[in-house]
Design brief:
This protein is of the alpha/beta class. Helix content is about 45%, strand content about 10%. The chain has 14 helices and ten strands. The longest helix is centred in the C-terminal third of the chain and has 19 residues.
Length: about 325
């Protein structure tokens, strides 16, 4: 990864910035390399920034970022990091896909941060490799590329492919790579310098624990919500959820009212609608297929629920006209 350790230093790294890339994982990838050079007192790594056409790129935070050149200016010996962010499907440029396939044939190490993994998948460069992507993008990613092994971990390093989920996970990935190439002592120095200690393992969860997310540690409530999250396509009835938890349906209702201020049905429905929005924004799945993937047998019911929750129909979410037959006036129902 990043070149053979036995080869002459520095290892070259080229970051390819997509429009609307997320800034944090890019800086998280670069800073550990800079600190490694500092503590080693020599250039272990060098890096350059590139865009598809060589023009500056606006990040998702609207900061305009200068680059060293276009794709053809990438050093031939450089490991590639594709840096994605918002609306990654829209930025899957055919020139970039073609170029990535070409450099992959040379045996170049290729990786991604944040949603850049979507571009690698589009190019067919993750076939047979473990990979990861940000948890918000994971449902759409697995729907679009069901054949890939997307682990949902913080990062994955698999032979000459490496991916990180975004945010600060690029720090852990880079520290792991530094440790593998130049020893754990140097990686530990870098981690301490950037106040990132300990170095997280690649398999750790991206998200906070469920009790932390819902603000409650009631074991039966946590167990029920875990079952809900695992059965969004084929929702379980309240009676089944209650029975599996050793509760009556009335006790189940009281539990959700007490800790979450809503009924179990409402909470379950919101989980499904949030997944639906993720699929609408991150995949090319039809609205009908999104509805089915989120447990709605009726597209019209799905559209009604979606509009009541988000204030717009699934079609409007994508900028499409809403079919006249969906009848958008009803509020969210309590039925599963």
């Amino acid at each position: 990864m990043f070149g053979d350790k036995a080869k002459s230093l520095p290892h070259a790294v080229a970051l390819v910035l997509l429009p609307e890339f997320t800034m944090m994982p890019v800086t998280s990838a670069i800073e550990p390399l800079r600190q490694a050079n500092r503590f080693a007192e020599k250039a272990l790594y060098r890096w350059t920034m590139h865009s598809i056409d060589g023009q500056p790129v606006a990040a998702s935070n609207n900061i305009l970022t200068m680059v060293n050149g276009d794709l053809e200016s990438v050093p031939p010996d450089a490991a590639i990091i594709v840096c994605g962010g918002l609306n990654v499907q829209k930025h899957a440029d055919k020139r970039l896909i073609s170029w990535l396939r070409k450099v992959a044939r040379r045996g170049v190490s290729i990786g991604a941060v944040c949603t850049g993994a979507h571009i690698l998948a589009e190019a067919g460069l993750l076939d047979g490799y473990k990979c990861t992507i940000h948890w918000e993008n994971l449902p759409g990613f697995t729907e679009a590329f069901p054949e890939l092994e997307a682990t949902g971990g913080l990062f994955e390093i698999d032979r000459d492919r490496f991916t990180s989920a975004g945010g600060t996970t690029a720090i852990d990935m880079m520290l792991t790579l530094i440790a593998s190439q130049h020893g754990p002592d140097l990686a530990a120095q870098v981690a301490e310098a950037i106040l990132h200690s300990p170095i997280r393992h690649h398999s750790e969860n991206q998200r906070m624990s469920l009790p932390a997310r819902i603000g409650a540690r009631h074991p039966k409530l946590v167990s029920i919500i875990e079952k809900m999250e695992g059965c969004l396509e084929d929702p379980l009835s309240p009676s089944i959820l209650a029975k599996q938890a050793g509760l009556s349906t009335r006790q189940l209702e009281r539990l959700f009212r007490r800790y979450l201020d809503r009924s179990p049905k409402r909470y379950y429905l919101e989980l499904r609608l949030k997944k639906a929005r993720s699929l609408l924004l991150q995949t090319d799945m039809s609205v009908i297929n999104v509805a089915l993937a989120c447990g709605f047998s009726s597209p019209s019911h799905f559209s009604k629920c979606y509009r009541s929750f988000y204030g717009r129909t699934p079609y409007r979410e994508r900028g499409l006209p809403t079919p006249a037959s969906t009848g958008q006036g009803e509020e969210i129902g309590e039925r599963i």
